From TrEMBL:
Protein name, entry field: EF-hand domain-containing protein
UniProt signal peptide: none
Domain of life: Bacteria
SMART domains to which the protein is assigned, alphabetical: EFh
Gene3D superfamilies: EF-hand
SUPFAM superfamilies from the UniProt entry: EF-hand
Pfam families: EF-hand_7 (PF13499)
InterPro entries according to UniProt: EF-hand-dom_pair (IPR011992), EF_Hand_1_Ca_BS (IPR018247), EF_hand_dom (IPR002048)
Domain EF-hand: 5-40
Length: 175
């Protein structure tokens, strides 16, 4: 993989976190992600699912900041993201899973609008990915691939492990 391809892949992952597109990752991006998911699935911020999502978003941000915000200015720049989040988490994907899990669990619960017992349908996950900025094509492919046992439902564990790989393993064949 040449350096231009590596840079492009890093840029995609950074953009996925930079929800408001202002060039840095901070708490507002995690709150924006939570708000977008709640709006998409018609859930209020005040209900249990909504509060769990915001609590998870804050924990995700705190975890990300703890790993990557080297200068402590409460913003993660592209350089901090590459040096901290990607490099440090690559050797420790369990750490990523740990900081992302509360948010992902809550997001699955919000997306589980049909009450599938804490699992979300492939279609719901596709909607969630799209509202978080994925293209229609990528969202469709990603949602299908998350349903590893092909029962049409996606569990928290599927999302946690797939996302940990996506953000920490930058391979030539990954998009
Ligand atoms: Ca931002
Ligand atoms: Ca910083």
């Amino acid at each position: 993989m040449d350096s231009a391809e590596y840079e492009r892949k890093i840029a995609h992952r950074f953009a996925a976190f930079d929800q408001d597109g202002n060039g840095t990752i901070d708490r507002a991006d995690f709150n924006a992600a939570a708000a977008r998911l709640l709006t998409e699935f018609g859930t209020t911020a005040r209900c249990d699912k909504g509060q769990a999502l915001y609590t998870g978003a804050e924990a995700f941000w705190q975890g990300m900041a703890g790993i990557a915000d080297v200068d402590g200015d409460q913003r993660v720049t592209r350089e901090e993201f590459v040096g901290g989040a990607v490099k440090r988490l690559r050797d420790n994907p369990e750490r990523f899973a740990e900081i992302a899990r509360p948010f992902l669990r809550a997001a699955i619960a919000v997306a589980d609008s049909e009450n599938n017992g804490g699992r979300a349908s492939v279609a719901s996950v596709e909607r969630a990915l799209k509202v978080l900025g994925a293209s229609a094509e990528i969202a469709g492919i990603a949602a299908q691939s998350l349903d590893t046992d092909r029962d049409g439902l996606i569990a928290e564990s599927d999302v946690v492990s797939a996302l940990a790989v996506y953000f920490t393993v930058i391979e030539p064949d990954a998009t």
